[in-house]
Amino acid sequence: MRLPIHGPLAMLLTVWIIAAPSWPAHGQGGSTGDKVYHPDMSNCGGFTSEDAAKLIELPASRLAARTQKLESASWTCTFSSPDGKGVSFTVSGSANARKASDEMEELRGNLELAAETPPFKDKLPGGAYSEISGPGLGDESVWTDVNGTLTVRKGNITVQVLMPSGKMEQIKVAQAFLAKF
At a CB cut-off of 8 Å and minimum separation 6, what does 138 contact? Predict the structure, then answer.
Protein backbone atom coordinates (compact mmCIF):
# COMPACT_ATOMS: atom_id res chain seq x y z
CA MET A 1 0.00 0.00 0.00
CA ARG A 2 1.35 3.44 -0.95
CA LEU A 3 0.65 6.45 1.23
CA PRO A 4 0.29 9.66 -0.72
CA ILE A 5 2.33 12.55 0.68
CA HIS A 6 1.09 15.98 -0.30
CA GLY A 7 1.37 19.59 0.71
CA PRO A 8 3.52 20.83 3.62
CA LEU A 9 4.53 17.32 4.69
CA ALA A 10 5.94 16.57 1.24
CA MET A 11 7.84 19.87 1.24
CA LEU A 12 9.27 19.19 4.74
CA LEU A 13 10.34 15.68 3.78
CA THR A 14 12.01 16.96 0.59
CA VAL A 15 13.94 19.65 2.49
CA TRP A 16 15.04 17.13 5.11
CA ILE A 17 16.28 14.65 2.49
CA ILE A 18 18.22 17.35 0.64
CA ALA A 19 19.69 19.03 3.74
CA ALA A 20 20.40 16.05 5.99
CA PRO A 21 23.63 14.87 4.32
CA SER A 22 25.26 18.26 4.92
CA TRP A 23 24.43 18.37 8.63
CA PRO A 24 27.33 17.60 10.94
CA ALA A 25 27.45 14.12 12.40
CA HIS A 26 26.88 13.79 16.14
CA GLY A 27 29.85 15.27 18.01
CA GLN A 28 31.09 17.15 14.94
CA GLY A 29 29.55 20.59 15.11
CA GLY A 30 29.99 23.32 12.57
CA SER A 31 32.60 25.21 14.64
CA THR A 32 35.82 24.00 16.20
CA GLY A 33 34.21 24.49 19.62
CA ASP A 34 33.17 20.87 20.00
CA LYS A 35 35.87 19.12 17.99
CA VAL A 36 38.22 16.62 19.56
CA TYR A 37 41.78 16.77 18.24
CA HIS A 38 44.54 14.23 18.76
CA PRO A 39 47.80 15.92 17.70
CA ASP A 40 50.92 13.76 17.62
CA MET A 41 52.83 15.39 20.44
CA SER A 42 55.93 13.24 19.94
CA ASN A 43 56.78 15.87 17.29
CA CYS A 44 55.02 18.84 18.92
CA GLY A 45 51.85 18.38 16.88
CA GLY A 46 53.74 19.04 13.64
CA PHE A 47 55.14 22.40 14.80
CA THR A 48 58.78 22.40 13.70
CA SER A 49 62.01 24.32 14.16
CA GLU A 50 61.32 25.88 10.76
CA ASP A 51 57.96 27.17 12.05
CA ALA A 52 59.59 28.62 15.17
CA ALA A 53 62.47 30.13 13.17
CA LYS A 54 60.07 32.10 10.95
CA LEU A 55 58.40 33.58 14.03
CA ILE A 56 61.58 34.71 15.77
CA GLU A 57 63.61 35.47 12.65
CA LEU A 58 66.46 33.04 13.22
CA PRO A 59 67.78 30.21 11.06
CA ALA A 60 66.16 26.90 12.01
CA SER A 61 69.64 25.38 12.29
CA ARG A 62 70.28 27.58 15.37
CA LEU A 63 67.30 26.17 17.26
CA ALA A 64 67.33 23.13 19.50
CA ALA A 65 63.91 21.46 19.55
CA ARG A 66 62.56 19.60 22.56
CA THR A 67 59.16 18.12 23.34
CA GLN A 68 58.67 17.04 26.94
CA LYS A 69 55.69 15.15 28.32
CA LEU A 70 54.60 16.76 31.60
CA GLU A 71 51.70 14.47 32.50
CA SER A 72 49.31 12.14 30.71
CA ALA A 73 47.84 14.80 28.41
CA SER A 74 50.23 17.78 28.72
CA TRP A 75 53.45 18.59 26.91
CA THR A 76 55.93 21.43 26.59
CA CYS A 77 57.40 22.29 23.20
CA THR A 78 60.58 24.36 23.24
CA PHE A 79 62.67 25.69 20.37
CA SER A 80 65.64 27.58 21.77
CA SER A 81 68.81 29.21 20.47
CA PRO A 82 72.12 29.49 22.34
CA ASP A 83 71.49 33.21 22.96
CA GLY A 84 68.20 32.49 24.79
CA LYS A 85 65.84 33.55 22.01
CA GLY A 86 63.15 31.02 21.25
CA VAL A 87 59.61 29.72 21.25
CA SER A 88 58.05 27.72 24.07
CA PHE A 89 54.49 26.64 24.77
CA THR A 90 52.54 24.00 26.63
CA VAL A 91 49.80 21.91 25.04
CA SER A 92 47.08 20.16 27.02
CA GLY A 93 44.48 17.81 25.64
CA SER A 94 41.18 17.32 27.43
CA ALA A 95 38.69 14.51 26.94
CA ASN A 96 36.33 16.85 25.12
CA ALA A 97 35.80 20.50 24.25
CA ARG A 98 33.38 21.09 27.15
CA LYS A 99 36.01 19.97 29.68
CA ALA A 100 38.64 22.17 28.02
CA SER A 101 36.23 25.12 28.13
CA ASP A 102 35.60 24.50 31.84
CA GLU A 103 39.36 24.46 32.41
CA MET A 104 39.66 27.84 30.64
CA GLU A 105 36.98 29.21 32.97
CA GLU A 106 38.95 27.85 35.94
CA LEU A 107 42.06 29.61 34.59
CA ARG A 108 40.17 32.91 34.48
CA GLY A 109 39.12 32.44 38.12
CA ASN A 110 42.69 31.64 39.15
CA LEU A 111 43.96 34.75 37.36
CA GLU A 112 41.39 36.93 39.12
CA LEU A 113 42.48 35.45 42.45
CA ALA A 114 46.17 36.02 41.65
CA ALA A 115 45.46 39.62 40.62
CA GLU A 116 44.19 40.34 44.14
CA THR A 117 47.42 39.24 45.81
CA PRO A 118 50.79 40.98 46.13
CA PRO A 119 52.68 41.84 43.94
CA PHE A 120 49.76 42.28 41.50
CA LYS A 121 47.12 43.93 43.69
CA ASP A 122 46.24 47.37 42.29
CA LYS A 123 48.96 47.04 39.61
CA LEU A 124 46.94 45.58 36.75
CA PRO A 125 44.94 48.49 35.32
CA GLY A 126 43.40 46.26 32.63
CA GLY A 127 42.38 43.60 35.14
CA ALA A 128 43.59 40.06 35.65
CA TYR A 129 43.15 39.09 32.01
CA SER A 130 41.72 40.21 28.70
CA GLU A 131 39.84 38.19 26.12
CA ILE A 132 41.60 38.12 22.75
CA SER A 133 39.89 37.22 19.50
CA GLY A 134 40.94 37.08 15.91
CA PRO A 135 41.60 34.77 13.00
CA GLY A 136 43.38 31.56 13.92
CA LEU A 137 42.92 32.01 17.66
CA GLY A 138 40.63 29.07 18.24
CA ASP A 139 37.43 29.17 20.25
CA GLU A 140 38.59 31.31 23.16
CA SER A 141 41.80 33.13 24.08
CA VAL A 142 43.01 34.89 27.22
CA TRP A 143 46.01 37.20 27.66
CA THR A 144 47.24 37.97 31.17
CA ASP A 145 49.79 40.33 32.65
CA VAL A 146 49.86 38.14 35.77
CA ASN A 147 52.40 35.83 34.15
CA GLY A 148 52.70 37.37 30.67
CA THR A 149 51.15 34.48 28.76
CA LEU A 150 48.53 33.86 26.11
CA THR A 151 46.27 30.83 26.58
CA VAL A 152 44.17 29.64 23.65
CA ARG A 153 41.62 26.83 23.35
CA LYS A 154 40.63 25.13 20.11
CA GLY A 155 38.18 22.29 20.63
CA ASN A 156 39.66 20.05 23.31
CA ILE A 157 43.22 21.43 22.96
CA THR A 158 44.59 24.26 25.11
CA VAL A 159 47.87 26.01 24.28
CA GLN A 160 49.67 28.37 26.64
CA VAL A 161 52.45 30.36 24.97
CA LEU A 162 55.36 31.07 27.32
CA MET A 163 57.96 32.47 24.95
CA PRO A 164 58.53 34.88 23.23
CA SER A 165 57.31 37.38 25.80
CA GLY A 166 55.38 39.94 23.71
CA LYS A 167 51.62 39.64 23.28
CA MET A 168 51.69 40.00 19.48
CA GLU A 169 54.54 37.49 19.17
CA GLN A 170 52.63 35.03 21.37
CA ILE A 171 49.52 35.45 19.21
CA LYS A 172 51.59 34.53 16.13
CA VAL A 173 52.93 31.41 17.88
CA ALA A 174 49.43 30.29 18.86
CA GLN A 175 48.11 30.90 15.35
CA ALA A 176 50.99 28.95 13.78
CA PHE A 177 50.53 25.97 16.13
CA LEU A 178 46.74 25.86 15.83
CA ALA A 179 46.98 26.04 12.03
CA LYS A 180 48.53 22.55 12.14
CA PHE A 181 45.13 20.99 12.86
Answer: 32, 152, 153, 154, 155, 157, 159, 174, 178
